């Protein structure tokens, strides 16, 4: 069964500062944004099936789920926001193996903690990567929960686009260089500052970020950016215009609170026009 947009990565249980739990992870936020752009969307994840189904239940009419069963769901304890946000790994669901077989227009590899494979079977017309989960250093005992440095086989052998934040740029330098050499377009977000688009083979563009009035929380804003960026590129938009579209999607998300604030295509296009 062919999908328009497929994310591969852990849907997480995020434990918030008030003790509440809600779904998280790049795979979830990016997939929800794609779905609200009218894409037939699938999340391939690993975890405790009942727990993930309960977390994602409010959004099940928008998304398809394929859950590889595990004894536990990746669980993160979160506090703070933006650049000051901290997360602690309480549980890890394990690696997502290469036995995943996909048929999708866009494949988005969206690791939280080095769980995604570098290769999947099947067909994907466009491959995007959000690499922070491949290189991120976790505090304390997290290194005992999941594999320490990422193995080379977990870095995609093919990549059309990469999206990451300025905070991860230094740790992803080698990955960025390799991706650009093979033709990938790289977007580096920097909060309210301009987004930098690194072009294959050299060259860069700065794309301004319109201010968000009365912003809500920013959880998942980078994931929303990535989904909109990959979708816009796959539709044939030039890299700078794709980044502007993605900035608009992130702005819509930040205008409200939680996953419910993720906007549809009409809201994103309206914000893009207003920013222009």
What does this structure look like?
The relative contact order is 0.14. The longest helix has 16 residues. The protein starts with a strand and ends with a helix. The protein contains 7 helices and 13 strands. The mean pLDDT is 90. It has 276 residues and is an alpha/beta fold. The protein has a 9-stranded mixed beta sheet with strand order 5-4-1-8-9-10-11-12-13, with helices on both faces. Strands 3-2-6-7 form a 4-stranded mixed beta sheet.
Characteristic key phrases:
globular; 7 helices; 276 residues; 4-stranded mixed sheet; 26% helix; 9-stranded mixed sheet; alpha/beta
In short:
The protein has 276 residues and is α/β, with parallel strands linked by helices.
What is this structure's SSE topology?
Layout: E1 3-8, E2 12-15, E3 21-24, H1 26-36, E4 41-47, H2 49-56, E5 64-69, E6 75-79, E7 86-91, E8 101-109, E9 121-129, H3 132-135, E10 161-165, H4 173-181, E11 185-190, E12 193-198, E13 204-207, H5 221-234, H6 239-254, H7 265-275
Parallel strand pairs: 1-4, 1-8, 2-6, 4-5, 8-9, 9-10, 10-11
Antiparallel strand pairs: 2-3, 6-7, 11-12, 12-13
Helix pairs in contact: 1-5, 5-6, 6-7
């Amino acid at each position: 069964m062919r999908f328009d947009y497929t994310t591969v990565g852990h849907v997480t249980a995020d434990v918030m500062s008030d003790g509440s739990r809600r779904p998280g992870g790049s795979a979830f936020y990016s997939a929800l944004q794609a779905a609200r752009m009218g894409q037939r969307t699938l999340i391939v994840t690993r975890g405790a099936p009942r727990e993930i189904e309960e977390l994602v239940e409010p959004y099940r009419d928008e998304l398809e789920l394929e859950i590889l069963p595990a004894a536990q769901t990746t669980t993160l304890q979160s506090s703070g926001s933006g650049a000051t946000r901290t997360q602690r790994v309480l549980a890890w669901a394990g690696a997502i193996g290469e036995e995943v077989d996909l048929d999708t227009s866009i494949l988005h590899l969206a690791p939280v903690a080095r769980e995604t494979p570098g290769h999947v079977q099947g067909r994907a017309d466009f491959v995007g990567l959000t690499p922070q989960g491949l290189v991120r250093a976790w505090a304390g005992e997290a290194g005992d929960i999941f594999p320490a440095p990422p193995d080379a086989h977990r870095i995609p052998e093919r990549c059309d686009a990469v999206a990451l934040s300025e905070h991860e740029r230094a740790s992803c330098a080698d990955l960025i260089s390799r991706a650009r050499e093979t033709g990938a377009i790289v977007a580096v977000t920097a909060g309210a500052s301009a987004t930098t688009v690194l072009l294959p083979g050299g060259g860069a563009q700065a794309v301004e970020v319109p201010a968000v009035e009365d912003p809500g929380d920013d959880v998942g804003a980078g994931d929303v950016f990535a989904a909109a960026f990959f979708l816009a590129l796959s539709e044939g938009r030039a890299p700078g215009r794709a980044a502007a579209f993605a900035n608009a999607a992130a702005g819509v998300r930040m205008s409200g609170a939680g996953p419910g604030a993720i906007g549809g295509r009409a809201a994103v296009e309206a914000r893009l026009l207003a920013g222009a």
